[in-house]
From TrEMBL:
Record SUPFAM superfamilies: alpha/beta-Hydrolases
Organism, scientific name: Alkalicoccobacillus plakortidis
Protein name: Alpha/beta hydrolase
InterPro entries the record matches: AB_hydrolase_1, AB_hydrolase_fold, AB_hydrolase_sf
Keyword Nucleotide-binding among record annotations: no
Record Gene3D superfamilies: alpha/beta hydrolase
Length: 258
């Protein structure tokens, strides 16, 4: 993995933050304060952000890239927090190598994308992307991510650190998630799982958070009522507090064993 941030005391527990579709590692800027408590690692997925690798886009390769990065950094276990697409990648990591996962935080994401609905969503993205410039498309997506309309200067400020559309890989990445199903992975996992959902999420509807909760026996659900798809940006202090409370509430024995 050629692009990532590694912040905080290297002796602390590791928290890996995985961004969403068309986003980048800097989208977690309001969570970087968690480096006061954890070693925070925020990678750019291939085809995103400052990554120079645009080849072989797949959920499997996203997950393997992060696993390989942690192995390179000699990190045996970590807490994983993924938002939207990042939550799908986090579930793939749990599926591939559960021993590396101390806990899972699944934010505004899903565990299952039915093929028909998935391809419809991909086609809609493709049509909009064909009609709009990068700037216009990023503003459109960001306006859908937020719960309330924002003034242009606010949208542009958030857009500057949150999105970086790569036309070469954006649709390919969206296609890679179609048909994913981690229901059995969640049902069989004893790992502590925190689910974060937003009532007003217009990208990944709240019903997805409820579905994950039903699938994961050792999970807990936190709900944002005043945020849309990106509560980590709209309500960062509450978001960070929830993450801290969740990880600190994991019994020490669970946190240091596989």
């Amino acid at each position: 993995m050629d692009s990532y941030l590694d912040i905080g005391d290297k002796s602390n527990d590791v928290l890996v933050l995985i961004h969403g579709l068309g986003s980048k590692k800097e989208s977690w800027k309001y969570q970087f304060e968690l480096a006061q408590h954890y070693r925070v690692i925020a990678p750019d997925l291939r085809g995103h952000g400052d990554s120079i690798n645009n080849e072989d886009i797949s959920i499997l390769n996203f997950a393997n890239d992060i696993i390989t990065l942690l192995q390179t950094l000699e990190i045996d276990q970590a807490h994983f927090c993924g938002l939207s697409l990042g939550g799908i990648v986090a579930q793939e990591i749990l599926h591939l190598q559960p021993s590396i996962v101390r806990s899972l935080i699944l934010s505004n994401t899903t565990s299952y994308i039915p093929p028909i609905l998935g391809w419809m969503a991909v086609d809609e993205r493709r049509r909009k992307l064909d009609r709009l410039t990068d700037d216009e498309y990023e503003r459109h997506v960001l306006s859908m991510c937020l719960n309330k309309p924002a003034e242009a200067f606010v949208l542009d400020e958030i857009r500057s650190f949150y999105f970086k559309i790569n036309r070469e890989t954006y649709i390919e990445t969206a296609e890679a998630a179609v048909g994913i199903n981690y229901t059995s992975t969640l049902m069989l996992s004893p790992k502590p799982i925190l689910i974060i959902g937003s009532i007003n999420d217009r990208i990944t509807y709240y019903v997805n958070a409820l579905t994950i909760k039903c699938s994961a026996p050792f999970s807990q659900l936190e709900t944002f009522c005043a945020s849309g798809h990106i509560p980590n940006v709209e309500e960062p202090q509450a978001y960070n507090s929830i993450i801290l409370k969740f990880i600190q509430g994991i019994p020490q024995k669970q946190r240091i064993t596989s």
